[in-house]
Specification:
Elements (H helix, E strand, L loop, with lengths): L1 H19 L5 H5 L10 E5 L2 E5 L2 E2 L3 E2 L2 E3 L8 E2 L1 H16 L5 E3 L22 E5 L13 H5 L7 E2 L4 E2 L5 H11 L4 E6 L1 H10 L10 E3 L6 E6 L22 H6 L3 H12 L18
Parallel strand pairs: 5-7, 11-12
Antiparallel strand pairs: 1-2, 3-6, 4-5, 8-13, 9-10, 11-13
Length: about 280
C-alpha cells in the first residue's frame, strides 16, 4: 500500500505539469474565434508568440481579396492590417492586379495546427505574387478563393522562373519591401536572383528580400515590432547590403535541398520554441 501511495504521489506533479502545458497546444489557439480585447500588442517572437487586440482584415477590399477564409487566419496586429491595405492601395494605383492575401494570424495568434512555424505574433502575412491569368482583371468569389493555390512564379523541380513571372511581380515586391514598416520578406531564391540580375543600381529595399525554401507561389512579409509592443521579440537585423552575394549563391545550389530533406526528417524531433508566459493570459 505504501508503495502504491508513493507512486501515486510521484504521478501528481507529472500530471499537473502535463495539464499545465495544454495551453501551448496549437489546438487550443486555433479553437479561439475572437481576438482578446485590450491595447494592441505583439507578444514574443513570430515563431513563439501571440497577439492581443488583433483586428480582422476584411474578406475583400480595395485592391485585395483574402484566400482560405475557412482557416480563420485573417487577423493581425492593427499595423499588419493597415500594411495590407496600404500595399493594396499602392498596387492598385499603378494598375497592378488585385492582390490575393493568404494567411495572417489566428484571432489571438499562437501556434497553428498546419502550414506555419511562424505567423504567431500578428506580424506576418502571405501575399501571392500574382493571380490566375484568367482572373487577372476579374474578382474571385469567396468560395473560389477557399481552395485556391496561386500561380507559381518558380518551378521547384527545375528552379526556373515560370510564365507567371512578369515585371509586375517585381513592381509588387518593390512596393511591399519599400514600406518602412517591413522588417524582411521571404521569397524563393530564384526570385531574389532575378531581381539582383535585373535591377541596376540595386536599391536599399532589395536587401529586405531574403531567400527561403519554397515561397514559389507567394511571398511572406514580416513587419518590425510595432510601437507599444514592449514584449515583442524581433529577429536579429537583416545583414547589411543587398544580399546579392555568396549567401544567395548557396541557396541556388544543391545544399538547400539536402538541408530541407534533413529538416523534414527531423521534423518530429525539432522542439517548438516555448511561448511567453504572457500569452497564457490571452486564453482567459
Amino acid at each position: 500500500m505504501r508503495r502504491l501511495l508513493a507512486s501515486a504521489l510521484l504521478l501528481v506533479p507529472l500530471a499537473a505539469g502535463a495539464a499545465d502545458l495544454r495551453w501551448t497546444y496549437a489546438s487550443r489557439w486555433s479553437a479561439i474565434r475572437a481576438p482578446k480585447r485590450g491595447p494592441a500588442r505583439s507578444i514574443g517572437a513570430t515563431n513563439a508568440g501571440c497577439v492581443q487586440g488583433a483586428v480582422a482584415l476584411a474578406q475583400a477590399g480595395p485592391g485585395f481579396e483574402v484566400m482560405h477564409l475557412g482557416r480563420h487566419r485573417y487577423f493581425g496586429h492593427p499595423a499588419l492590417v493597415e500594411f495590407v491595405r496600404r500595399v493594396a492601395a499602392r498596387a492598385a494605383a499603378v494598375q497592378l492586379p488585385t492582390l490575393l492575401i493568404g494567411d495572417l494570424a489566428q484571432p489571438r495568434g499562437g501556434p497553428t495546427p498546419t502550414d506555419h512555424g511562424s505567423h504567431q505574433s500578428g506580424l506576418d502575412v502571405d501575399i501571392a505574387y500574382t493571380r490566375p491569368i484568367q482572373m487577372l482583371q476579374k474578382p474571385l468569389p469567396a468560395e473560389d478563393r477557399e481552395g485556391l493555390q496561386p500561380p507559381a512564379v518558380v518551378d521547384l523541380a527545375s528552379g526556373k522562373l515560370t510564365a507567371a513571372w512578369t515585371p509586375q511581380v517585381a513592381d509588387l515586391l518593390e512596393i511591399a519591401a519599400a514600406d518602412p514598416a517591413v522588417d524582411r520578406i521571404f521569397v524563393n531564391a530564384r526570385v531574389k536572383h532575378e531581381l539582383c540580375a535585373r535591377i541596376k543600381p540595386r536599391p536599399a529595399w532589395l536587401g529586405k528580400l531574403r531567400p527561403w525554401w519554397k515561397h514559389h507561389d507567394h511571398f511572406h512579409v514580416r513587419l518590425k515590432c510595432p510601437p507599444g509592443s514592449f514584449d515583442c521579440r524581433p529577429q536579429p537585423p537583416v545583414p547589411a547590403g543587398d544580399g546579392c552575394d555568396e549567401t544567395l549563391e548557396w541557396w541556388l545550389g544543391r545544399e538547400p535541398r539536402i538541408a530541407l530533406a534533413q529538416r523534414r526528417a527531423a521534423g518530429p524531433r525539432l522542439a517548438r520554441a516555448a511561448l511567453p508566459k504572457q500569452c497564457r493570459q490571452l486564453l482567459r
